[in-house]
Design brief:
Number of helices: 9
Helix content: 25-40%
Largest sheet: 6 strands, mixed
Oligomer: single chain
Bound molecules: adenosine-5'-diphosphate, magnesium ion
Number of strands: 10
Strand content: 15-25%
Radius of gyration: 18 Å
Distance between the termini: 35 Å
Shape: globular
Strand order of the largest sheet: 6-7-8-3-9-10
Structural class: alpha/beta
Length: 243
């Protein structure tokens, strides 16, 4: 079998006296969609942020696509392969939608403006809002802004996409349009690690479910097993609240 595209080995992360991660190990295969759930404060965001080294960890080892997260050079190489989408869309409010998608392509990928614009337009089509290229983020709905944020991440041609509660800041009627884009991406074979409590999405798109609590992975199972027969009392209690 091929080497997992993400290898996480016994990660510990402390914030002062708070032990955010207490020995997390996880391998993600290429093309796999892993959905992480768990109570607030259980370490989900910290774990995601460790994967692209937005967060430094105290001990343990992470290797992404064969690159260990150790030297600055390697960390930068990994960041180029990993796209991330956050709960808050973090778009540049003073730039048009098109320029939000073009900027990093030119600065980081060194693409010509022409090439970057071409890629940007294709991606806006893909996320279903080609007509919004001239709009500014403030003129878009939350769901549209989040789709722009996804397109912006995709413009860098990531091998892996990380999503941290991408729909939790959205009004209910906009959640589906964002989940649909994510589901399409999953169906295309993108490797995805998704923190989300949208259980419909998880059932449909996840290859594997992970339940975290208090800085640890408490349960890891296929969605079918996880939703029909969760093994751990804590997962069961949590599921009964989100389902
Ligand atoms: P989750 O995403 O599951 O809600 P987090 O990973 O955000 O959990 O947080 C895990 C724990 O680490 C929490 O106790 C949180 O308060 C703490 N924490 C996270 N980020 C920081 C930070 N930058 N400084 C201090 N404590 C933090
Ligand atoms: Mg979080």
């Amino acid at each position: 079998m091929a080497e997992p595209i993400i290898q996480i080995e016994d990660i510990h992360k402390r914030f002062g006296r708070v032990q955010a991660l207490r020995g997390v190990s996880l391998n993600v295969e290429k093309g796999e969609v892993v959905v992480i759930i768990g109570p607030s404060g259980s370490g989900k965001s910290t774990l995601l942020r460790c994967i692209n080294r937005l967060e430094e960890y105290n001990s343990g080892k992470i290797v992404v696509d064969g690159i260990p997260l150790d030297t600055t050079e390697n960390i930068n190489a990994v960041r180029r392969e990993v796209g991330m989408v956050f709960q808050q869309f973090n778009l540049f409010s003073h730039l048009s939608v098109l320029d939000n998608l073009v900027l990093a392509q030119c600065q980081v990928r060194k693409r010509s403006r022409e090439e970057a614009v071409e890629t940007a337009r294709q991606l806006l089509k893909k996320v279903g809002i080609p007509e919004k290229e001239g709009a500014f983020p403030g003129q878009l709905s939350g769901g549209q802004q989040q789709r722009v944020a996804i397109a912006r991440a995709l413009a860098m041609n990531p091998k892996i996409m990380l999503f941290d509660e991408p729909t939790s800041a959205l009004d209910p009627e906009m959640i589906k349009e964002v989940l649909d884009v994510m589901a399409a991406l999953a169906a295309e074979g993108m490797t995805m690690v998704v923190v989300s409590h949208e259980m419909g999405f998880a059932r449909a798109a996840a290859d594997r479910m992970i339940f975290m609590d208090e800085g640890r992975i408490v349960e890891m199972a296929s969605p079918k097993e996880f939703f029909t027969n969760p093994k751990e009392e804590r997962s069961r209690a949590f599921l009964s609240k989100v389902l």
